[in-house]
Amino acid sequence: MTLTASARPNPASRPSSIRRVWRQLSPYAYIAPFFSLFAAFGLFPLIYTAYVSLYRVELQTPGDMEWRGLDNYTALLADEFFWTSLRNTFTIGVLSTVPQLVMALGLAHVLNYKLRGRTFFRTAILLPYATSVAAATLVFAQLFGRDFGLINYGLGLVGISPVDWQTGTVASQIAVSTIVIWRWTGYNALIYLAGMQSIPHELYEAAEMDGASRWRQFVHVTLPGLRPTIVFTVIVSTIGATQLFGEPLLFEGSVSGGISHQYQTLGLYMYEQGWGFFHLGRAAAIAWVMFLLILALVGANALITRRHSRKEAGR
């Protein structure tokens, strides 16, 4: 009779299996803190806001919730101030975003050349972004003063009568847009500058050998190379314009955006409904309208960019 000894388990197999499991789970462990914080402070408030928007909730009695369904949304569509704030958000967004990105692109193009003291200029151009929005807006409110403002003083020197920057619809929107342009132009210029420095220098050398001027190099080399960066800044600026709040609030210190709501944005309108009139349900509905509006604008930008890329690839 032959006896065979049973094979003992290899002690090294257990640590190897543990290491294998850890290699599979470690990526999820590394990203778990971010997604946990996002779920707690991003996803849950978003879902709860959608839930509150279906109820009638007052700030004084937040525990008393009365089911309204979509009535908060239909009430918004019937409110003329909602359409006014939506129109103001669009016009201020265009007045601030388009000049801001064009100026940022020009500044980045200048700073991309070898200039004396360019490190200082690259640092100084970011100072408006680092400035407090409250301090910047209060200073600009004094500059745009009707009676003693520096802007009207300069206009008077060239024979132009004083402008009431806080009462006029177009004038007040231009003033608010100027604050946004001043704060964000340098930030976008540095983003464009980083994108320009990633473009291979050989492309510029080849274009120069072909006799292309600096303007043609900018049009045919710089702009195509910056297309992803430009799309990014357009999307981020669009989101920022939709959520504009601090500048119009502090420009005159009124949540109504002027006497006739001439520069009230959707952010101010939401604040007025929630913390001015205590209608938390309607404020939640406005927040979700802003969220859906941002999704629509970002989707439209992505669709236009994709179609343009397909046309360029088909050539």
How would you portray this structure in words?
The chain crosses the membrane at residues 28-51, 90-111, 123-144, 285-305. Pfam families: BPD_transp_1. This is ABC transporter permease. Residues 86-299 form the ABC transmembrane type-1 domain. This protein has 315 residues and is mostly helical. It has a single domain (71-314), classed as MetI-like fold. Helix content is 72%, strand content 1%. The chain has 14 helices and two strands. The protein has helices spanning 13-52, 71-77, 80-111, 118-124, 127-130, 133-143, 150-157, 169-197, 201-209, 214-225, 227-242, 246-252, 266-276, 280-314; strands at 55-56, 66-67. It has a two-stranded antiparallel ribbon with strand order 1-2. It is globular, with a radius of gyration of 28 Å. The model has no long low-confidence stretch (mean pLDDT 87).
Query: For the residues shown, what is the average pLDDT?
Result: 87
CATH superfamily (homologous) name: MetI-like
CATH architecture: Orthogonal Bundle
Query: Which percent bin holds the helix content?
Result: over 70%
Largest β sheet strand count, sense and barrel closure: 2 strands, antiparallel
Q: What is the count of structural domains? A: 1
Task: Please compute the radius of gyration using only Cα atoms.
Answer: 28 Å
Unreliable residue runs: none
Largest sheet, order of strands side by side?
Answer: 1-2
Keywords:
315 residues; mainly alpha; MetI-like fold; two-stranded antiparallel ribbon; 14 helices; 2 strands; globular
